[in-house]
Amino acid sequence: LLTERLAEFLGEGRRWMDLKRTGRLATTLARYGFRANKNELFPIPTGELNANPAIGVSGQNPGY
After folding, report:
1. Residue range 31-51, pLDDT digits in tens
2. Integer CA distances (angstroms), 15 to 6, 27, 39, 44, 50, in order
3. Nearby residues of 48 by Cβ (< 8 Å), 6 or more positions away
4. Which phi-psi region, left, alpha or beta, contains residue 34 (left: φ > 0; alpha: ψ -120 to 50)?
5. What's the pTM value of the predicted model, to 2 decimals?
6. By the 8 A CB rule, do 32 and 22 touch?
7. Could you give the angle at the alpha carbon of 53 between the alpha carbons of 47 and 56, nearest 5°?
């Protein structure tokens, strides 16, 4: 099923969520320098941090 989805949605950005949901993200992307528990989260944009005082700088995702 994952191979079929890979071929069908090539270039549409759906592969990331398929791998993450099935727990295969770290093993599949390890050869590209992916590190589990660091590269799974993206940084919260500075504009969002500034616009929402409830988040603050300390609310940034770990590693950023």
Report:
1. 888 888 777 788 888 888 888
2. 6, 14, 15, 22, 31
3. 55
4. beta
5. 0.54
6. no
7. 75
